[in-house]
Amino acid sequence: MATLSRLISKRNRLVVGLMSGTSVDCIDAALISITGSGTSTKFKQLAFVSHPYPKGFREYVLRNSLPGSGSVDTISTLNILIAQFFVDAVKAVARKARIPCAKIDLIGSHGQTIHHLPTARRLFGKSVRSTLQIGDPSTIAKLTGIITVGDFRTGDMALGGQGAPLVPYFDFLAFRLAQKSRALLNIGGIANITLLPKNCSVRDVLAFDTGPGNMIIDALMKKLYGKEFDENGVVASKGRILTNVIRFMLVHPYLKQEPPKSTGREVFGKMFVDEILRRTRGARKQDIIATVTEFTPLAIYQQYAQFLRKRCRLDELIVSGGGAHNGYIMEALRRYFTPAEVMTSDDLGISSDSKEAVCFAILANETISGNPSNVPRVTGARNPTILGKICL
């Protein structure tokens, strides 16, 4: 406890943020130096690595994330196994920064989501929302010797929130401006958008998951081409849009659902992909990829127009995540969002790859500082709350 007390009293901290997203392609680890907390937070990225999982691990996790496919013994084992991979990522980013692990003050770990059920259901007389991120933070703390904060989402859900998205608090701290209205768009497996009206307070922030980002594209690239993703959108750029299929995708009920809302593989996973394959039987492979790739920016824009544009007109759209490397997606976003300037977070000095890992380092710093870091207007929680579990 003395170590925790010393950490709480420090104004400057070295913190590692860990993120493994819906795509389960790697562990992103960012080591940052943080001064202060809350709206006085200042940070500098010292090192970043994308630490790969062993071959075949991605498919193993995805298979065991499906209802009826996973088993309690497998998930129990995965919870500890993936924590050990997270430990390897911490050591890798420390080596890259040439900083001994003993000098690192704190770890913030998102974990690996294997199931997310944000809609309340009645069970034995109780209203229950649930989510499960594996990668036990206590194991990470013991194997690194570094205090670790994890399980950020459940505290918000206990107060009636969706437990997601959590990035908007970081977006507010890092990207708000007095003179311009901005939207932060992260395109990972799932895409999420944060609206920051000019001169906003945290109470003005709006955000939600817009639906699939790269998830469907990656699944169909694997199925049709045996590749993990469409590098720079090259395959999509060679195809033509299948209008009947994109119309089917655009009437998905999630897209019409009012925020606050969040989603994941439970809604847009294997069953949705199988339905797309059924509807595109006989079509050219590149046309299928072009269609599902076009769907991502189109769904993002339509939901911006429906739920956010009435709040303010955008001056800038700032993109991060794997989708920022897809030339087709970026060009489509420029087409839809004109006259707003569309750029990546790299253009503002924050790597589009490391942004979410940096976010969870910042969230861990907020937890240690005793600051609430959910945004109730975004998640639907009854009130602001301190997030995460502190593991010694």
Structure description:
The chain has 392 residues and is an alpha/beta fold. It folds into two domains: 2-166 and 353-391, Nucleotidyltransferase, domain 5, CATH 3.30.420.40; 173-348, Nucleotidyltransferase, domain 5, CATH 3.30.420.40. The chain is 40% helix and 23% strand. The chain has 16 helices and twelve strands. It has helices at 2-9, 57-63, 72-97, 137-144, 153-158, 167-175, 215-225, 234-237, 243-250, 253-256, 265-268, 270-279, 285-308, 327-337, 355-368, 376-379; strands at 12-20, 26-35, 42-52, 106-123, 126-134, 148-150, 182-187, 190-196, 206-212, 316-320, 341-344, 389-391. The longest helix is centred in the first third of the chain and has 26 residues, at 72-97.
What form results from the Cα inertia axes?
A: globular
Number of domains: 2
- CATH-level-2 architecture of the largest domain: 2-Layer Sandwich
Secondary-structure class? alpha/beta
What is the H/E order? HEEEHHEEHEHHEEEHHHHHHHEHEHHE
Note poorly predicted spans. none
- Mean pLDDT score, rounded? 96
CATH class of the largest domain: Alpha Beta
Distance between the termini: 8 Å
Strand portion, in percent?
Answer: 15-25%
Task: Output the radius of gyration.
Answer: 20 Å
Assign a percent range to the helix content. 40-55%
CATH superfamily of the largest domain: ATPase, nucleotide binding domain
CATH topology of the largest domain: Nucleotidyltransferase, domain 5
Largest sheet: 7 strands, mixed
